[in-house]
Specification:
This protein is mainly α and 307 residues long. The chain has one domain. It has helices spanning 3-29, 35-56, 68-90, 95-102, 105-117, 123-140, 152-175, 181-203, 205-210, 215-243, 245-249, 254-266, 273-289, 293-306. α2 runs antiparallel to α8, α3 (68-90) crosses α8 (181-203) and α4 (95-102) packs antiparallel against α6 (123-140). The longest helix has 29 residues, at 215-243.
């Protein structure tokens, strides 16, 4: 495994860790602000940070007129539609069911990647995706499946988030060939503000005015803007550019797993044996999903050469 391959997989893992931490930071911000307000401020912080970073590094590619519509579509799918679907969907159905629906993103990704990008996936890779989803279900339903009374509107909104993530992944893979990654995420988040600002003014501005400023909310908002909305997307886009949409998206199944570990460390939530088994199943599925038949061939060839 060469240095670039290590960097690609390490980037995917770092992105998942930042996104997993975001659930801890969400908990701190939701004491003060509502979901749309949170996302809007998060995007504003991210955009300011990324513009400062890209300009200082002289890495900001000029925005081409013909790509304005593409960036509007990119931002419409994610962050706008994804966060609308996820935020309001979670408010209507149990969080465990919502997490399982989000975990189906890697299952649908191969269809979109094949249809739009002509990416192929082996049977072993698909098996890895299925195993990983099973592992996520074990982590989430560690206390038993029980009866889930699901609001159909909540389920529909969560699947809206899933579809948005799929179309976003396809679009950003195409755009990554025309802009460097830093510029891509900078423009994506800035265009996202265009969609969230009017939504915020209509639904949550009055509530925002009643909340006094506090450093307790600013710190987690800065973490969300810089790490979850900036660096996480930069690292994930880099891994997607090199691994392909399908193989990169399977890493999203590690988010509930890492979040369970972080909740155990920071929030004192229980980490049971069943959860531990689920975590191992997710990791096993992740390895299977990245497996390529050539790996075995290379191992045998290397062993023959040594003999």
């Amino acid at each position: 495994m060469n240095k670039k391959t290590i960097a690609v997989y390490l980037s995917a893992i770092i992105a998942m860790v930042f996104w997993s931490y975001s659930f801890i930071w969400y908990k701190e911000v939701f004491v003060y602000y509502k979901p749309i307000t949170l996302v809007l401020i998060r995007l504003i912080i991210s955009s300011i940070f990324l513009f400062a970073l890209t300009i200082s590094l002289k890495r900001l590619d000029p925005l081409k007129k013909e790509d304005i519509l593409n960036f509007l579509l990119l931002a419409f799918f994610e962050p706008f539609m994804y966060f609308i679907g996820e935020s309001f969907g979670v408010s209507l159905i149990p969080s465990s069911l919502a997490a399982v629906i989000v975990a189906t993103i890697p299952l649908f990704t191969p269809i979109g990647a094949y249809y739009f990008l002509k990416e192929r996936i082996s049977l072993m890779n698909f098996l890895g995706i299925v195993v990983s989803v099973i592992g996520v279900a074990i982590v989430i339903f560690h206390k038993g499946f029980g009866k889930i009374d699901a609001n159909p509107y909540g389920v529909a909104l969560m699947f809206l988030a899933v579809l948005s993530a799929l179309f976003y992944a396809v679009m950003i893979k195409k755009m990554a060939a025309r802009y460097n990654i830093l510029s891509l995420i900078t423009y994506q988040n800035t265009f996202g503000i265009i969609f969230f600002l009017p939504t915020f003014l209509i639904f949550e501005f009055n509530h925002f005015r009643t909340v006094p400023f506090s450093w307790d909310v600013l710190v987690p908002l800065l973490k969300l803007g810089i790490f979850a909305s900036s660096f996480a997307f930069i690292f994930f886009t880099f891994s997607m550019k090199n691994l392909g949409v399908t193989k990169a998206n399977i890493f999203t199944n590690t988010i509930p797993v890492v979040t369970a570990i972080l909740a155990w460390i920071y929030l004192g939530e229980e980490l049971t044996l069943t959860k531990g088994i689920g975590i191992l199943v997710v990791i096993g599925g992740l390895f299977l999903s990245q497996f390529h038949p050539r790996m075995i061939t290379n191992i045998f060839v290397r062993n023959d050469d040594e003999d």
